[in-house]
User: Fold these one by one.
Assistant:
Number 1:
Amino acid sequence: MKILLGVTGCIGAYKSALVLRLLQKKGHEIVPVMTRSAEQFIGALTLEKLSGNRVLRDLFEDGSTEIEHIAAARGSDLLLVAPATANILAKFANGIADDFLTTLYLSTTTPVVVAPAMNVEMWHHPATRRNVSTLRERGVTVVEPGVGYQACGEYGEGRLAEPEEIIEVVTSLLNPGKKDSLKGRKVLVTAGPTIEDLDSVRFISNRSSGKMGYAIANEAARRGADVTLVSGPTHLAPPKGVEVFGVRSAAEMAEVVFNLFPSMDIVVKAAAVSDFTPRHRVPQKMKKTESPLSLELEPTIDILKHLGEIKSNQYLVGFAAESEDLLTHAREKLRRKNLDLIIANDISEKDSGFEVDHNRVVLLDREGNEIVLPRLSKNEVASRLWDHIEQRLATRIEVSK
């Protein structure tokens, strides 16, 4: 297939060459499209020699009578922009067409994928959040940026996603073989942390970014399920086509989940729910004193355990985030909470788990299956998870016949 690879001006532009190569290994033809700013970070000649195609960059460069941006749009199967700066996202969202890439976008009727890359504050700015939301509503697929140190020296979200993760997203769009495999199923996913307030400014929480749960919800929606996402506070944009309930505390999440649960077919509890909450919340800010402060905590409601007790035909999935004896604790939790499947991940691993874009997990189900997955992007983990759930549900249907 022919892919138009848009490259814009930021430090992450150097990764576009690797994205190009990985797409070629998948058998795709790549036509690079560069903005003028992109050429300050990577040479057009590099992309031209790697792709074997002329780089498109100037609306008035070609002397032929063919309207080139229209011809390029009509002759391609997908437009990928990696990296996509805040500037290009704003132009796409607001219909500004002042160069080849922006004009090409407005002419494109095939799938569009953008992989944002920018400073953490730019990524979280309300204008950027609004632009990303607008693009999602129009059907543009957004590959969430990664977390880490940036060229400016700051740390946070905004780094260009890893090339392998971008390729996974593109591949799933070009090969939608599982597009309707969950059609007719009602799926509930929980994601993110919960927050337990101590006073008007302080709270207890955890390091969950919500990325795993959002990836699971997004993949279920891509496969045609009717998806509801109950999310604690995160900086993530809602997945396309997913109904989202935002909550803050464990008690709020429990109330929403318990109300939704009876109508669901599959429930995946990926949220990192706080285990404890203050017994007494102070309405105003507690003043600092020289004396030690003691906090009295009480357990929060065990949402997953309660679901296991009241479930009827629902397929119930939980997570076990452990720092020691991973499989032992996961198997015990699978049994004690009456789950159908549990995803065990070792949170002591520095390159997977909380606050990163990858995970290394083991799937354990009640039939005794144990599937060890290597370190994968959270999108790929979500895909493997749904493959397994679909397989188990198909087996359940066969047994009931």
Number 2:
Amino acid sequence: MPLHPQCKTFLDMLAASGGRPLHEMSPVEARTMAMPPELGGPEQPVHQVENKRVPGDGGLIAVRVYRPSAASPLPALIYFHGGGFVLGGLEMVDRPCRALANASGCAVISVDYRLAPEHPFPAAADDAFAVTQHVAEHAADFGVDPTLIAVGGDSAGGNLATVVALRARDAGGPPLAFQLLVYPLVDFTDQDSGSLREYDEGHFLTRPVMDYFADHYLPRGVDRRQAWVSPLHAKVAGLPPAFILTAECDPLRDQGEAYAERLRQAGVQTTLKRYDGMIHPFFGLGGIIDGAREANADAAAALKTALTR
């Protein structure tokens, strides 16, 4: 299927705005180029939104907790934002997290993990795991059920969710019930997949931008095939069930779909859905792209099914 017209309009809008390509900016400059929040859709009211801090090896980690109701305990989704490990934060995913909380009935805990290059690998992965451990061990403080915790994220955040699931399995906990992976980056060694060749320019996420993020996140000498970097190369048996969403016109499409197949082959219950005509950041563009609202609804429905006793 060709590029969806709404995605083309978004790409044309970005092109018309001018400015240097992201990969030619410093990370500090790039962080000033956040997209308008209204592109994520309306700011839905949520029963309670609370900013908290939890301890990590690198200091306190900011999290934002979205509670869709006064019920307690609620199932929970711990969510890691995208941005190539270099960009993003709580505001970047505020509107999608609100929508997910309301539609799924789950508490959503958004994590402001440390960013590279100031904090290279494994800082983000360590923060992601530390928050997950803390929420599970202090579930009553968050009003959540420690047996009904999911991890999820988009792009780089999908990578962190997979890494948390691997670490939790290998450490004997915390027990996780589900993974929600939105066009996850799961293979830093991918240089020649079909989707990378076809969509590596002109579709938002380009090869130079991917290299820019990888070079900032991964210190020289890090093995890019190791499990906590590229989960596609990990042993995945024993992981929690997963819903993986991919975008047709995304260079990361093939690796996300390959990861779904790896999970299935290992006996992990996995649902995969590809969204035709969509581009890499579409999940967070519910204000302008119909496919984003469909994907948000699908994600919420998957969470509700997986986390309902």
Number 3:
Amino acid sequence: MTVKRLIINADDLGADEARNAGIFEAIRAGIVTSASILPNGPGYPDALKKIQSASFKNVSWGVHLNLSEGKPVSANPLPLLGPDGVFLGKVPSQRLLMRQGDRDLENEIAREIDAQITLLETSGIPLSHVDGHQHVHVFPAVLREMIGVARKHHIPWVRIPDEPEPTSPDFTLPPSVREEARFFTRLGQTARPLIAASGLHATDYFYGLYLKGYFSIRSLESVLRCLPDGLTELMAHPGRVTENPLETPFSSFSTPDREGELETLLNTKLRIILKERKIILTPFPENPC
């Protein structure tokens, strides 16, 4: 018998302490079942301490590969950095990572993502999955290197941001959100056969691209109402607001939008919807088969 299983994954754990606080609040509430950790985030030590100081059951942890913001983990991963020694930012990094056939660039990418995963592994956190900040892991210059590094570290699951475009009137999205979601979906669709051929695993379905800025009970109910049988990942970005944000590449990570997502996840109506739709919350399975 087929069932509807749902992974609610919180991205950006380690961005800062306010973001961490919101994510752990949702984990302790039993609604977030998985989280992806930013190895180079300013809140990484705080996230690590919280994970190691408690016994979290039925929660999976992954690596949120970051090649666009903050400082690198490895030494001198040029040409990924600007003259200030930090990653180039979202748009310039995406432009660079669309490049194909540049072996020097690909070698630097492989070195950096290997360093990010190794940093997490040495902390003793078991890693179930790989995804990317701003989905960098499925960009042309990154995809094959990511596959190789994930296999090297025996990480079984990879996110494929391939999402059907919503037609429900609950999604009155601006063109910018739709275009970005379509762009990431095209990258995900291109990545899917390569990931499948590599022996790595992906969930049957993925949602979250079209919820950017519109993560509400109404929009979630629209998604969950039509959730197919099988294993689905729902990407979320819960958090708390930073009281005194510092001017860093991560200063925009803990905002009222993040707190709005957290309150949506903690809304009792969400549990009612899940129960009515017979949707089972789960982490990434230890055995993908």
